[in-house]
Amino acid sequence: MTAVFNALHLQAATLDVIAATHAPASLLLQRQQQRLARLLDAARSGSALYRERIDPAVARAAHLGRMAPVARAELMDRFDDWVTDPALRLDELRDFTADESRVGDAWQGRYVVWESSGTSSLPGVFVQDAQAMAVYDALEMVRHRASAGRGGGAGRWFGSFSAFDALGATDRTAMVAATGGHFASVVSFERLRRLNPWIAQTAHCFSLMQPTDALVAALNEFQPTVLATYPTAAAVLADEAAAGRLRIRPRCVLTGGEALSGAAREHVHRSLDTVVRSSYGASEFLPMAWECAHGHLHLNEDWLILEPVDEHYRPVPRGQPSHTVLLTNLANLVQPLIRYDLGDQVTLHSQRCECGSALPTLEVAGRRDDVLRVPSRRRKGETISLLPMALCTVVEEQCGLFDFQLEQRDARTLVLRVPQHGEAAQAAIDRCCDALQDFAQAHGAEPISVLGELGCAVPRGRSGKACRTMMA
Prior knowledge:
alpha/beta, Rossmann fold, GMP Synthetase, Chain A, domain 3, five-stranded antiparallel beta sheet, 20% strand, globular, ANL_N_sf, CoF synthetase, CapK_Type1_Caps_Biosynth
């Protein structure tokens, strides 16, 4: 029942992160390159898979551009060849994560293990040792905590929620997430509770998968001062607060795991009368980016490399949105991730943030949901692509609807589903249908039909992430 933790590793990582947080860009790059060389050496030495993939010249030059990207499917298919510790066997880890009673337990007494949700591809199993966890903890304690302060709460929680997060001595923390698996959020939350007896008494996890009225009743009874959840779930709870059913007054709402739109942020802020902080992370690297006091996400690029690329894996210039992004995790030497296709759409910026940090800023559009394609009126036989982020922006910002799913039924028909009933819900769907039809035609599509369906629960993946746009 012990949690993976090493005080010396944490002390060393914390001092390093403190020193680098306000360091010039040249020093950050130097740290990054040193860690990349270490990672490549460890991967070639300990991983049979990477010995095949990493050319010695690439390792000596620490030049990633000459390496082919890798996808989760290949890594999971060759898991036992991928990891650098031969004691890690995928079949044993699968058995471990199949047992919900062992969430938060240390595997073999020295590894933290969690699984991804599998919403965008097959589920992955990810393993971290005490040294990698110390880096994640230090990044959160130093950067995320300092960026938010007492009034704003911890800057990053989702998937990590470290034992040293910025929780006040009188805080009551509610994490609203799916509790049916060894997901990063739940595993990390349980680790926090085991490392800190005080937090174990004042921090509780509430299942996102239960009926909304039951969740609202439980939160009303608990009265959290810090609420942590997905943006889509936060928006649903904001609806409940606006309707007078959810009666809590958190000092901050922490969101992660999904992209937080400006409209959703304002909706949560207004309905719950609280500060809202977002973050960017994944099962593959927990605290990838933190939100500064100026509202910008800063990439922790001294401990990771993020390469925005197009659909052919060619680099995308800064300031332009990517098709996907390649992640290289510089902290985890047990399970090397080098040029890993993360599946996120991001935009890295070159301008220096007003907060003074040299760490680059980025915008995150989220995971690649299904792109909906409808007939073009300009070129017969061709289609127009309707991007998920653009469609969600229309529904959220123009129509004020935050809990929904948009499905393409056929070439000319979209179906918008919402869980609500009644006249107000029907009016919201009518607004959305008109706005989506106008949006599609403005982008060169032939006229399409948008149908509305009331009283439909929005599907969520195993980890609780909402499925927003999809093909039938």
